[in-house]
Design brief:
Helix content: over 70%
Distance between the termini: 138 Å
Largest sheet: 2 strands, antiparallel
Length: 555
Amino acid sequence: MDNVFHSLDQKINRISSDIARMSNSTSTQLNGLSQEISGISRNLGELSKELRKLQNDFDEMINEQRKKAALQKALTELVTVRQEIQNKYGNYQVVRDNMLGVLQATDAALVRKTTISHISEELMLSTPRYWLAPCLVAIAAWINNDRDLANRAIREAVKRDKEQTALTMALICRRNNRIETCYEWLSIYFSTQNSANFSEASMVYVTAYVNGVFGPDKWHMCDDYINKWINEVRSSNARFEHEQIETWKNHFKKYCNSTGNYYPNMKEYVSEFSDIDSYIGRIGARNRIKTDFKDIENAYVDMDQLRRSIDDKLIELVSQDTPDEKLLRQRERYLTFVKQFDGDEARAAAKIKIENTARREETKNLVERMSGLITNGGRTAASEKKTALSFLHMYINKGYEEFMNEKEEAFPKAISMNIKGWQGRTQDGSNKEEMKRQFHDYITNVCESEVNAEMQKTPNQYYVWMMVAAAMGILFAGASGFVSLVIAIVVIVYCFYQVQKFKENKVKNVEKIRKVYSDIEAGGLVTIDNCVKEWNAANKVVEMYRDSDKMAVVI
């Protein structure tokens, strides 16, 4: 039997050895396989990087090819666009140059009348649709006293572009001191304007008119147009007057300053201070508002500078492209940027967008534009502000009146003071002494309440420890003898010392409480005096304002 077990044991050992060898072999194979997989993974990673780099290189190559193609296309199209501008509008530029030359020549009287006539007639033939050409003919006829030709040329110019012709002729007449004719043309120009979409350029001419650049308007032709525009804006919006009043009220609020520095005690202790501050702040703003608007009314206007600016507007008007030209010029500008940026169309488009945004003019209705000349806080010319005042004074005064009266009703008849929990109320300070007595009684009561609370405090814990120590000393006297007695005596002495110290501290605390409340009372009495003084001063300011002559802000 022992041999059988021995044989079986040997077999089991051999099997175990075989399994171990197989396990080691398998482990070795798995490790090798893992290393191979890791190597493959690294290779795939490198391959992925190479592929990404190849993709980036390919995308960059495609982008470069696209930019080269765009650049080549832009260069070709740029030539085409410039040829189109030259073919279609080249003569327009000649007309403009000659118009500017004629304007300068007539000022200096250096060119013969026949030369001007000959040139203007040739240009009329070469530009059959351009509005400026018949204007040039009209000026030449005007110089030669050919009224019939001048009238025919003007009619043709009006037919081609009524607005531009009317404005050009108005500005030319102004240069030549033809006041009545100037106003006739200016009236025609104003008739083409839309009060709901009033341009900044139109506002320049209105400002020049109001400040007398065009001379006296005896028949009030243009005055009537401006009033008509304002009425149009008013009739198109049922809330127009309300919005205007709110606009000016909000503008006047910028002049208000807090009165807290003048009334520091009321600011801290009076419940109604916000209403006091709001009303007196507006009263205080009154002089600043009137000074600013008086400065606008009395501001010096450099008429020579204003005339020069109007002459510059004439040059700008005569020199500007037609709408069709502007489209081609815009295309030319874009293609020029594509060339400049080596075919990068996205950068060219972004550049054009920035330029258009900067150039785009915001259109507003006439009243908004006039209001903005004063309320926008910018460096607006004195002449423009004077223009706004001349037509909006009614709404400015209404806004000012509401601004001044808005907080009057909320101004309190009496004030309520809250000092350290005490509350008192007065109308004119006549009950000041009574309030002081009340404050004294209130502080005294609060003080005595705290003193009583302090006096009622007792060192109960020390009494308890003394009793416990005595009891423990007696209880353990037989067991531990002298040691227990000594410990008990030490505890009792310590507790007795703490009781005496507690009583001394209580006396000191009571003295401290009385000192604190004495200081509070003294400070409170001064505060009551100051609040009454400030309240009377505030009432005096209000009374002086109510008794004053409440003139309109714009007269």
